[in-house]
């Protein structure tokens, strides 16, 4: 059964919002490439630039979530106490996080450019699981695409899985893109 969104007239079609979550892992970029290849498989191209016209059916947002930096430490062992990082350390870490997020999103936009698809980016700070689900709800996303690191059941249970959490809590359809067969997880 084929679903049509608003009929054959391009002007009456509903624009669908896709969101792809990326982090520093190769699997998230594999998921981004997969999404671009499969969402835009039949998208027409403009004559001038050859870019795919995503305006007719899909709009793509690439989201990256940075974990919040806690500027205090709880040392292990006897004595206890809380230690706070100096202002310069806190600023240095925040700057590094911003640079890392910018590099990740830049790499994602390069993949989009290579596939001739326009995309917007979104950076958020917080727990990735919660923030991605929150973003799908706030932005009325129709499809969320996330990569899977290929963790086994035990590791997934102990470490938690962003993709697994999103599959159960996102307010939209979720596609989890698994790594290619024979690939070893990197992160």
Automatic annotation (TrEMBL):
Domain annotation UspA: ranges: 19-178
Domain of life: Eukaryota
Protein name as annotated: UspA domain-containing protein
Organism per entry: Rubus argutus (Southern blackberry)
């Amino acid at each position: 059964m084929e679903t049509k969104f608003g009929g054959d007239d391009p002007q009456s079609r509903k624009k669908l919002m896709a969101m792809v979550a990326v982090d520093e892992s190769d699997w998230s970029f594999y998921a981004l490439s997969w999404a671009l290849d499969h969402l835009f498989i039949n998208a027409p191209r403009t004559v001038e630039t050859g870019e795919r016209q995503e305006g007719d059916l899909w709009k793509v947002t690439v989201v990256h979530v940075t974990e919040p930096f806690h500027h205090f430490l709880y040392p292990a062992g006897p004595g206890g106490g809380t230690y706070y990082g100096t202002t310069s350390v806190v600023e240095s870490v925040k700057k590094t996080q911003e640079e890392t997020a910018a590099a990740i999103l830049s790499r994602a936009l390069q993949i989009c450019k290579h596939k001739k698809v326009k995309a917007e980016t979104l950076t958020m700070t917080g727990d990735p699981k919660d923030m991605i689900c929150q973003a799908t709800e706030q932005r009325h996303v129709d499809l969320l695409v996330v990569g899977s690191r290929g963790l086994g059941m035990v590791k997934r249970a102990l470490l938690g899985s962003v993709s697994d959490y999103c599959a159960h809590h996102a307010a939209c359809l979720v596609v989890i893109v698994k790594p290619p067969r024979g690939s070893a997880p990197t992160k």
